[in-house]
Design a protein that fits this description.
Structural class: alpha/beta
Domain GFO/IDH/MocA-like oxidoreductase: 130-239
Protein name: Gfo/Idh/MocA family oxidoreductase
CATH architecture of the largest domain: 2-Layer Sandwich
Organism: Pseudonocardia petroleophila
InterPro entries: Gfo/Idh/MocA-like_OxRdtase_N, Gfo/Idh/MocA_Oxidoreductases, GFO_IDH_MocA-like_dom, NAD(P)-bd_dom_sf
CATH topology of the largest domain: Dihydrodipicolinate Reductase, domain 2
Pfam family, one: GFO_IDH_MocA_C3
Strand order of the largest sheet: 14-13-12-11-7-10-9-8-15
Number of helices: 8
Length: 344
Amino acid sequence: MAAGTTYVAVVGYGYWGSKHVRVLSSLPDVAVTVVDENDHRLAEAAGHYPAARLATSLDAVLDDVDAVVVATPPSAHTHVAVAALEAGRHTLVEKPLATSVADAELLVETSASRQATLMVGHTFEYNAAVRTLKGIVRSGTLGRILHIDTARLSLGRYQSDVNVIWDLAPHDISIVSYLFDEMPSATSVWAQCNIGSRHADVAHVRLQFERANTHAVVHVSWLNPNKVRRVTIVGERKMAVYDDMSDNERIRIYDIGVDPAEIDDPASAHAMPMTYRFGDITSPYIPFDEPLRVQDQHFVDCVRNGSTPNTPGRRGLDIVRVLSATDVARDSGGTVRIGERVAS
């Protein structure tokens, strides 16, 4: 083992695991070990990253690494992450942190007892566009936020162990709660299973934010012809749209809105006349830096200097509490209060 090198094991060489291996392999003084039970995936990893070490189990390499990235299917997150944390290894877990509140609490507790860093992969909190959007919200440019609408849609990538909410909504829940510096207090859900009979593949999740006195609606789908990654913020003064699929104008600010007009004729009261405002559309310049690279570099920095991650395990626990509440809301058909949350 070379002095000054950080050794990281990536467990799971699937969609996200392969991206982590690519990014980590590009970072200076980082040596990567790919762990996967599937020999075909290991052969693929070896072909792309000949310098990477290969292993079929984490136990075989745990003594030789400083940190672990867990990129397995969500149902395996807890088992793998507990093994890494129990060994005192700093651990980054892809979203969602776990598939139950109890498991997420176990990971946070194990991290604290072993004094090992636990970080969750809420990648969009490391996205320059999302950080710019937060600055716009905080500046008051948009005025009071009336509501937020998000859409995360695509065709396919059906999961076997979680529904579309647990798969896609963690991104948007983390984005909106990051913008407000507040976790939602209640949720209601509409979800539909269109293909097969196991998991919902289209859903709308309503999130209530008490301190901000507003709400957000999160639309997620595995059954959409186009890939959509969009956040729309409607303010009293202006509106903003963040489109992650845009190449050059990821954020647009619209000087546009609707104002109730005074009613002069009582007979016309039922018409609720409106005054519409139309103005300029502006787009701030946002230099691009791959969010996953920013996130993984931050993780490596935390491993090296012992600092607390910007998205610590307790942040992942907060999101899992919301996801768990969506299960109850979906089954009950009503609005569900979200349980007590760990302070971030």
